[in-house]
TrEMBL record:
Gene3D superfamilies: Aspartate Aminotransferase, domain 1, Type I PLP-dependent aspartate aminotransferase-like (Major domain). This is Aspartate aminotransferase family protein. Coiled coil: none annotated. PANTHER family: AMINOTRANSFERASE (PTHR43094), AMINOTRANSFERASE CLASS-III (PTHR43094:SF1).
Length: 437
């Protein structure tokens, strides 16, 4: 076997044949930079994959993982526990908006969504509302890649290959309104009424059939769609009126991305369930979970027969010792280095920098909030997505990592980014966007 043979690995969300013809190999990472196999440094403009919020190679996190592996490498999570699981749960409840009570662990954002959906269905049944089995998602929403997630998700390319998916799922319209909200800096002013789609679904199906509505506070994976002012408040009000659980998918927006622990706090809207992953461990060890509001756990437990497992759900690696150690250390780093506050302080500079690209010929919109930005381009002459991917490829060659989805460039740097690095990312984009047809 040749050590450099690329054929055996089937890569995720990758044009495999294209990549293997011209690989982009990462062999190291430190701070704001990746290192490539040809000795170059790549400035990370995407926090890896929206996850390395404290940057790479954080000594405290590395040491915590190493020490935990030497002390307790694995503990079965069913019918037994380890201390770090409970310590972390308490820390996360303290970090969450007021009124949250429990944490359930899993291994990824996709699993967190499945856990949230199953918990919502279980809660409705436990409180005597077993007819509530319908789930509501949103067009252009991304909720991972398991069957529940792509069913409530609304990205067509992620759904088309896999058949009918889950029955009893509906979707709200997405919130992107280019006629009224182009080049908005921060929260758009128009579109709160789109939340009324949920009210129409209630009238169509009956509230007694709907268990939960799940949305990303900001739809990041589809290209950074920031919710209109008042939209999330309106969703919350409709859910309250009709007994529907509201789930915020905060896999991306959690842990400081918007300058607050969770987007729920940034928007001042408290959901019933929050999903989390990515920044939970700073991307170092796979981990996900959900936070649930007080009363959900208690209702499900009270409905179970004495001696029965209250929620028949969980994973071999739920609350894995290494993941818990990484998460606890990550929370320490976020707190001690003031990274959430740092992100909030950098937001005006970040906003001004990304919006300085307005006026370049192919750019048709720029959207931002916190340390997130989406730069939308006209489709290139060779078809949708080709212009953006060529910009991605050239940025890599010039030492900057960006992310593209269709014709949209998405940026989400680690929260440790310096002002000069913001300028470097934006100046590189300015130069390359002007060069690409």
């Amino acid at each position: 076997m040749k050590l450099n043979d690329l054929s055996s690995y089937w890569m995720p969300f990758t044009v495999n044949r294209q990549f293997k013809a011209a690989p982009r190999m990462i062999v190291g990472a430190q701070g704001m930079y990746f290192q490539t196999d040809d000795g170059r440094e790549i400035l990370d403009g995407t926090a890896g994959l929206w996850c390395s919020n404290a940057g790479h190679g954080q000594p405290r996190i590395v040491e915590a993982i190493q020490q935990q592996a030497a002390k307790l490498d694995y503990a079965p999570p069913f019918q037994m526990g380890s201390p770090a699981q409970f310590e972390l749960a308490n820390r996360l409840v303290d970090l969450a908006p007021e009124g949250f009570g429990q944490v359930f662990y899993c291994n990824s954002g996709s699993e967190a969504v499945e856990t949230a959906l199953k918990t919502a269905l279980a809660w409705q049944r436990a409180r005597g509302e077993g007819t509530r089995t319908r789930l509501v998602g949103r067009e252009r929403g991304y909720h991972g890649i398991n069957f529940g997630g792509i069913s409530v998700g609304g990205i067509v390319g992620n759904r088309a290959m896999f058949g009918a998916l889950l029955a009893g799922v509906d979707h709200l319209r997405h919130t992107h309104d280019p006629q009224r909200n182009l080049f908005t800096q921060g929260v758009p002013e128009h579109g709160a009424d789109l939340a009324d789609d949920l009210e129409r679904l209630v009238q169509l199906h009956g509230a007694q059939t709907i268990a939960a509505c799940i949305v990303e506070p900001i739809a990041c994976s589809t290209g950074v769609l920031v919710p209109p002012r008042g939209y999330l408040e309106r969703l919350r009000s409709i859910c309250d009126r009709h007994g529907i659980l509201l789930i915020f998918d905060e896999v991306i927006t959690g842990f400081g991305r918007l300058g607050t622990p969770f987007a729920a706090q940034r928007f001042g809207v408290t959901p019933d369930i929050i999903t989390m992953a990515k920044g939970l461990t700073n991307g170092t060890v796979p981990m996900g979970g959900i936070l649930v509001r007080e009363g959900i756990y208690e209702t499900i437990c009270a409905a179970a027969a004495e001696g029965a497992v209250e929620l028949p759900h969980g994973y071999t690696y739920s609350g894995h010792p290494l993941a818990c150690a990484a998460a606890l250390a990550s929370l320490d780093v976020y707190r001690e280095e003031g990274l959430f506050e740092r992100a909030a302080g950098l937001e005006p500079l970040w906003q001004e920098a990304v919006h300085s690209l307005r006026g370049l010929a192919p750019i048709v919109d720029i959207r931002n909030l916190g340390l997130i930005a989406g730069i939308e381009l006209e489709a290139g002459p060779n078809g949708p997505g080709t212009r953006a991917f060529e910009i991605y490829r050239r940025c890599w060659e010039e030492g900057v990592l960006i992310r593209v989805t269709g014709d949209i460039i998405a940026l989400s740097p680690p929260l440790i980014i310096e002002e000069g690095q913001v300028a470097h990312i934006v100046d590189t984009l300015r130069r390359i966007i002007a060069q690409v047809d």
